[in-house]
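Practice problem: Sugar phosphate permease
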Amino acid sequence: MSPPPARAALTLGGTLAVQMLATASTLAFAVLAPAIPGVALASVGVFLSLVYLGGMVGSVAGAGLVGALGPVRASQLGLAAQAVALALLATGLAELRPLAALVSGLGYGPITPASSQMLARTTAPERIGFIFSLKQTGVPLGGLLAGAALPALAASWSWQAALGGLALAAVTVAAACQPLRREFDMRPAGQGARLALAPRLRQMFGDVLGDSRLRSMAAVSLLFSACQLSVSGYLMVYLTTEVGIGLTQAGMIYAITQGAGIAGRIAWGHLADLTGSPRGVLVCLAVLMSGSALATGLFTAQWALVPLCLVCAVLGATAIGWNGIYLGEVARLAPPGRVASVTGGALFCTYFGVVAGPAAFGYFAQRMHSLSLAYLALAAVPILGAALLLRGARSPHPAPTGSAPR
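Answer key — structure tokens:
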């Protein structure tokens, strides 16, 4: 039986807003780095790696937090942690940046397991790819918000004011989600909240590693997430320092990249539902991702604005557009009632790619003294992902572990 449309729409809207603010908060330092005094190139990659190191822990702990407190409360606590991290960054103290990154990651980790649990209860199985992709547009929407608003606020007032405004928005969205608690967080009488971490960890990773389909998707997500954060984390710095574009114009191109990710997530999710082949759609995305990364590495000051925007749009639509298909498949393959747990386990692998990717990208760029060479090298990563997907398509699959979430 399909859920009421109003209930499904309210759930989608709430999870989308939470995802958007959480993502904008994690990217705020990378976007504002050119405006913050004394920020070295490599420190952007280190910051993002620490964010997603915290995200790895947060995704695992977040699944337990969802079970203990409910998905809405877990989301609210995640946004509160983002506000604290932004406040730490606004002090301007370099010594507090690693702490801010870890706090931001710990807050970001529970967001996706919580939203997956909520959407699994309100989404019809035949629409799961589209709805999960639509919710995941909150990630590029958050990047668009960061790229379009933060540089403008920093230019008009200060970079500290930009961080403060984003923190206030995160707290406001957390408060606005309170009415959803009655729907998703209320427990039957006598059912207490428990955070039994060890059993949850065994079940979480057992579910992911014991299913070849989940295992292969998690491995590919590691590679794709490394590409995604290398784009989101370094594109602004690359455009301003090597290509020679002004901060405001670079912010516009960055926003176009994130905006294309929004359109891509919706289109790819719909295509995956239409074709019934999420894996095949991801192979196509990998090829386009590789080609656009290669073209990005060829940018020079002689490139006109339109081709710059077109290449970055394809890069955003692919490198930022794959997540909804992945999360929809994880939710579809999860055993009944364990969507948050399985999503948390799969995201542990995803975040490993996010932790390693930006740091490796930044290290390579620094050693080669060139971000353009780093983007050229990045083009090989999605091709490896495509090879894994094609190999997985030829492997026999076990029987389904559970029914599609409802």
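Discussion: The chain has a mean pLDDT of 84. Students who identified this feature from the tokens alone can consider the problem solved.
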